[in-house]
Amino acid sequence: MSQRILFVDRDGTLIEEPADFQIDSYAKLRFVAGVIPALRALCAAGFELVMVTNQDGLGTDSFPREAFEGPHQLMMQVLESQGIRFREVLVDESFEHEAKPTRKPNVGLLLHYLRDRSIDLAGSAVIGDRPTDLQLAENLGCRGFQLAPGPWTWEGIVAELLGGGRRASVERTTRETRLRISIDLDQVAEPEARTGLGFFDHMLEQLGKHGGFALKVHCEGDLHIDEHHTVEDTALALGQALRSALGDKRGIGRYGSAASDHDSRELAARFVLPMDETLASAAVDLSGRPYFVFEGSFPREQVGGLPTELVPHFFRSLCETAGLNLHLQVRGENAHHMVEACFKATARALRQALARAGTDLPSTKGVL
């Protein structure tokens, strides 16, 4: 298998770059937000790291080598203590006006990677904080990501490289409803729901908020008849979007992150959620096999215009198109609390099951 490389800049990418552009003292050494967990995840996914950095005039009177080495070695030791090791550290010491072929964005320091046929350059990437890093990526024939002031964060880069972004949009039109749903499993954002049923909108927002993903739902349904088609079709479209966004499901928790010294993938995520007098629990398996089990009864027929009989029907329909196995239980006295606890508990169980680390497929069958 070809090796994928991340060609990573140093100043402004791994560690913050000071106003004078030189990290020549320990006091100036500060890591960029999110870099350590991101690099750990990328290394676990099989990427190798190569540092490529321009250090203007290193070894001259303007930037003595001994002032550089101490903070640099401390940085490397901290990274190594977290399991982050670099295949190679490549430093160009020239000034910009010298225009040497070894200075980024030129590829002089990286010619051996261009010649090595075991390197998957198309699957590799350059990560930096300047346009020159993007130009280097173009010169190498790989992808480029620019951190601030560019558009990327370390968290976003991990999501993009490990899954290409787990996003999906679904439009569903029938004689009863017109639906548009978008979902991004790797983006945290305030959820939006507009279905014409205020309480149902609130419940959908609980799924996005407590599930930890971006969710937008817009539905125009035949509410002049009743609520059934709006609730059912929303669940079916949401399940379709969820299944599409998950892709091949590599790296997901599947059952969630149950605490165990053994393989946590063998333990279902049973999330128990209290809400005043109400207690709800949800257990989730993203198995690809739809199955829904519900235990509970509501003390009244309707909450905020939403018939309570449609609550288990919503989750059953969601399971059908998402390929989801869900066991949901609720007990309590206040119907509002009970319905809301069902949505929140399911969302929290989904949050665990959707969480991704690495690229392994959590199934002995080789497919989910």
From TrEMBL:
GO molecular function: histidinol-phosphatase activity; imidazoleglycerol-phosphate dehydratase activity; metal ion binding
Protein source organism: Alkalisalibacterium limincola
Lineage of the organism: Bacteria, Pseudomonadati, Pseudomonadota, Gammaproteobacteria, Lysobacterales
UniProt GO cellular component terms: cytoplasm
EC number, as in UniProt: 3.1.3.15, 4.2.1.19
Residues that hold Mg(2+) according to the record: D9, D11, D129
Known cofactor(s): Mg(2+)
Entry protein name: Histidine biosynthesis bifunctional protein HisB
Region of interest: Histidinol-phosphatase: 1-165
GO biological process: L-histidine biosynthetic process
Family: In the N-terminal section; belongs to the histidinol-phosphatase family. In the C-terminal section; belongs to the imidazoleglycerol-phosphate dehydratase family.
InterPro entries for the chain: HAD-like_sf, HAD-SF_hydro_IIIA, HAD_sf, His_synth_bifunc_HisB, HisB_N, Histidinol-phos, IGPD_sf, ImidazoleglycerolP_deHydtase
HAMAP family for this protein: Bifunc_HisB, HisB
Active site: D9, D11
Record keywords, A-Z: Amino-acid biosynthesis, Cytoplasm, Histidine biosynthesis, Hydrolase, Lyase, Magnesium, Metal-binding, Multifunctional enzyme
Catalytic activity field: L-histidinol phosphate + H2O = L-histidinol + phosphate; D-erythro-1-(imidazol-4-yl)glycerol 3-phosphate = 3-(imidazol-4-yl)-2-oxopropyl phosphate + H2O
Domain of life: Bacteria
Stored PROSITE patterns: IGP_DEHYDRATASE_1 (PS00954), IGP_DEHYDRATASE_2 (PS00955)
Annotated region described as Imidazoleglycerol-phosphate dehydratase, given as residue ranges: 166-368
Broad class of the protein's primary localization: cytoplasm
Associated pathway: Amino-acid biosynthesis; L-histidine biosynthesis; L-histidine from 5-phospho-alpha-D-ribose 1-diphosphate: step 6/9; Amino-acid biosynthesis; L-histidine biosynthesis; L-histidine from 5-phospho-alpha-D-ribose 1-diphosphate: step 8/9
Subcellular location: Cytoplasm
